Amino acid sequence: MDLVQTINTLFPDEHSLDKLDEVLLKLKFKNYKLEKEIGEIIRGQGGAVDGTKELDKAKKAINELYSKILSLKEKLEGIMVKEVTKDIRALDNAKKNLSSTITILKRSQMLLTAVEQIDQLKEDYFEIFSMVQVAIDLKSYFEPISKDSNRIKTLLNKTENCLNNLQKRIINEYENSFSRQGHFQGDGKKIVGCGQVADLFGNEFQMKIIEFYCNLQLQDYRALINVSTEISTLENMNRRFAWLKKILKTFEQEHESLFPKGWNVGKHLAELFCIDTKKDIMEVLLRTEEFQVKVLITALKETVAFETQLIQKFPNENSEISNFYRVISSCFEPYLSYYVDEEQALKNSDLEKEIDEKIFMSSTDLFYRYKQILKNCCSITNKKALLEISRIFGSTLIKFLDQLLKKIDSFQNKSIYIYCVLLNTLDYCHKTTQQLEEKIKDLIDVDLKEAVTFQNEIDSILLMISNSIKDIVKFIETESSPMFSIMTKLPWSTQSSVDDQSSYVASLNNLLKQSIEKCSETIQSKTFFQSVCDKFVDSFLQVLLQNIYKCKTISEVGAEQLLLDCQSIKKQISVFSSIGTGEESLTYSKLLNKGVAKIESLLKSVMTPAEPVDGLVENYILLNPDSTINQFQKVLELKGIKKIEQQLILDIFSKKTNKLQEKIPPTPPPLPQFANKINDNIKKLMNLNFK
């Protein structure tokens, strides 16, 4: 069977494809019928092999025929869909092109009509406004497609010429509406319409009208300053500014309504005025041979105040710096060195007067003066002049403090109160100088912030504070000298008995108590008071030790008495650091215990009997493990041992210390019996309560 021929017979043309489903149904029915007949034949033949083969062959032929018909159906359907969609796309493109062409024709007609209306409506600018708006919008629409059409190019050129002519007409309307003196003499309604139309042309065209108006209003002012009249001097800065205020008032009352609000004509007028004024002031400053600083600063202050008024009157919509910030005052900057020099001279002349009148309160007066100068300077500039003023502050402060110290040194009757007030003054200057540095850094221009520093001055003040604390301690020691003089003159070598305390101790304790209490009452900083206490206890105990060495010969009983005196003094000064706070300082306690321990070791060594010599040496080494031979010799001198006898004892000391250096035993050797007895007596003395 020829399948292709059969298909062509069943479907001779395209229209016969409509019967495709019907043919498929018939084939399925015929296939079913054949299968049934074949089955009956096979059963009749009793399962013959040839019948089965014929059946399979027939099934295969039918399936091939069915598959080819389905394939043909799919191909035909695909071809039909493509043809249909191709036609649809062609129709859509044609429709779009037709719509675009119609739109272009309509809009070109609208643009042409708008251009003709603009030319015809000569002075009716409110009607022209809508036509110009249409023309500008359509012009923007046609510009991208003008390359492909000469007619559109021609239309755009005609539109451009029309709009240019309209701009010239608007400029002429404004020029003809104002007199040469700047007075308005035209038709207000017409000019308002011109402004609305001009607003459509953008910033560049708007600025032409604004500059015309501003130049017209400023012509008289420019004429005045160009001929060097009285108004152009520094003494008459306010007359300049009053002139602008008058012009702005006229603008706001008579002319502001002639311009669209968004043009900010008043602001532009003020900006041009500031530019002209700055240029003229620069020329005036260049011509000035000798400056009067008062006139210069007054003019600058008036200028800064005027700029501030303009900033407030014409605020920026965004957060940017105003155009009026330092727009005029910046030209004064190169000449502020005259102001700086005058402040320097004035401060130098006032310094001696302040010191003569008030010694310590003069520091507050000085910083108050700093504050006033800083305020004045910041009102006129925050540039280099402010930096120079800050440097003057630093140098003047150090000079003030140096002169203050010299003045105090010249006092004949000094007191601890004066030294404490000096410490307060230095503390105040230190804190206030740090605050002043931060304040100036906040006020000065960002580019100069890093150049502001008072570190050298602060370091100098800290050194003065340290010296002041030493002076307080030295003063107390000086006041204690008479008591120490009494102590060194007492007959310690012939002391026969031990009392609660010697005669000088009560006076010394009373003096120390009054001095430290006065410090606590006067010194404002608790930190510095504690520093005074620490420095005092360390230095005073060294002085006490040195005066013990000055006592020449001290007997064993005398050493016991000195030990009791030392304990009484320790008890008195142990509470000094807690005065005013009630809290004992750990540092103070360590210094106190360390200093007293040295004195006690010395006195215990003096209390040791000279015989036997080995016992004396061993006990001294035990009490003073780090002592030198010279220090041991001083102990021998205090004990009254003669020079000849000292040499033998010193030799023994050298031998024993050398052995200790070669080999340090794990535990110290036991003390001789007499040494133990002495230590027991010392412990009993230390445990006594003294009133």
TrEMBL record:
Superkingdom field: Eukaryota
A Pfam family recorded for this sequence: VPS53_C
Keywords from the named record: Coiled coil, Endosome, Golgi apparatus, Membrane
Subcellular location: Endosome membrane; Golgi apparatus, trans-Golgi network membrane
Signal peptide: none
Family statement drawn from the similarity comment of this UniProt entry: Belongs to the VPS53 family.
Keyword match Thylakoid: no
Major localization listed first in the record, in broad terms: membrane
InterPro entries hit by this protein: Vps53, Vps53_C, Vps53_N
Domain Vps53 N-terminal: 1-356
Limits of the Vps53 C-terminal domain: 560-641
GO terms classed as biological process: retrograde transport, endosome to Golgi
Coiled coil: 55-101
Cellular compartments per GO CC: cytosol; endosome membrane; GARP complex
Presence of keyword Transferase: no
UniProt topology in membrane: Peripheral membrane protein
UniProt-recorded name of the protein: Vps53-like domain-containing protein
